Amino acid sequence: FGERSLAGLKVLVSAGPTYEDIDPVRFIGNRSSGKMGFAVAEAAAQAGAEVSLVAGPVSLATPPGVAQRIDVRSAAQMHAAVLQAAAQADIYIGAAAVGDYRPQEVATQKLKKHDGSELVLRLAENPDILASLSAQTAHPFLVGFAAETHDVASYAQGKLRHKGLDMIAANQVGGGLGFEAADNALTLYWADAAVALPRAEKSELARQLVAHVAERYRATRG
Ligand code: C5P
Q: Which GO terms are recorded in the biological process aspect for this UniProt protein (predicted)?
């Protein structure tokens, strides 16, 4: 793979968790650190792409070479930011751990405890960013992530098909890998093949992932 395999291309990356507010002091979040997505953004910039990064709430510095960073908090904000930026992108890599649900109502005042009684939070489903993009007639080359605790291969291949993706990067969560960890291990799937990227630092895996994305992009859209 060439050193500047993404030269001339615009790449949009989403990274990090989303926070869904319950009230002014509480939220529903997840354990994504944003490290994998930030590493992917950095690797894409190193490969010559013009990179835009949509980041959920993380405390990570913008990687060198990234042209534009848009910070968001909720899944709805990420959905809006990604759909807007995707209109200019050749490739979208969705590495963010987008919250599947949000509280149906956000309390304007801090919720109070009522001794002994249960509290019921009603949740509404968030729109799927990747599925929204793939439903559009003209859309970027779409790369998804699938973080799974079990049955990784079958869930990943299912998401590849159901979300209409060009490629998916699957990883097993747990055992010092995945969320919050420095290392990861990925298996990439596309329609007719799979390739395993063994355990390595996220920066190294990101470089390998970007090389495969560039190769698949050139083969199908180049
Ligand atoms: O279905 P699941 O959330 O496991 O799929 C993960 C992939 O889908 C990731 O690439 C994630 O960024 C994307 N996703 C999305 N919009 C959502 C939920 C997940 O784009 N609302």
A: coenzyme A biosynthetic process; pantothenate catabolic process
Among 57, 133, 151, 127, which residue's Cα sits nearest to residue 93?
133
d(CA 158, CA 170): 11
Closest ligand 1 atom to residue 148 Cα is 4
CB of 75 within 6 A of ligand 1: the answer is yes
32 within a domain of the structure (yes/no)? yes
**Does the residue 196 lie in any domain?**
yes
pTM: 0.95
Any known ligand binding at 83? no
- Domain CATH number, residue 201: 3.40.50.10300
Q: How many domains does the chain have?
A: 1
What number is the ipTM of this complex?
0.96
Distance (Å, whole) CA 218 – CA 98: 28
